[in-house]
Amino acid sequence: MDNVSTRKESFLVTLFSELRRQDIPYAVLRNYMEFPQVPVGTDIDLLISPKDEKRYKEVFKLAAKKHNVAIVRE
To answer: Alpha helix (H) ranges present in 1-74?
Structure first.
């Protein structure tokens, strides 16, 4: 596994662990078959409640910072 794939997988593990820890409900809509190993260049579609959007963004930003992942679009 290359460095980008490893970093992406680590980021996803952190993101979803923190969502569960903070009890933020979500649904994965696609690209979940090999989760958390997602091929580079693919996306993951998540469904979250509008009332949890602010909390989700904070969790996402923390996971991105922890794993040195750039946020290029919200």
So the answer is: 3-21, 53-66
CB 39 within 8 A of CB 12: no
Q: Is the dihedral of CA 62, 67, 70, 74 positive or negative?
A: negative
Structure tokens, 56: 């989700």
Closest to 12 measured CA to CA, from 72, 1, 28, 73: 28
> How far is the CA of 28 from the CAs of 22, 46, 47, 65, 68, in angstroms?
17, 5, 6, 22, 23
Kindly give, in sequence order, each residue whose CB lies less than 8 Å from that of residue 12, ignoring residues fewer than 6 positions away: 35, 36, 38, 44
Q: What is the pLDDT of residues 12-33, one digit of tens each?
A: 899 999 999 999 999 987 655 5
Task: Give the predicted TM-score (pTM) of the model.
Answer: 0.74
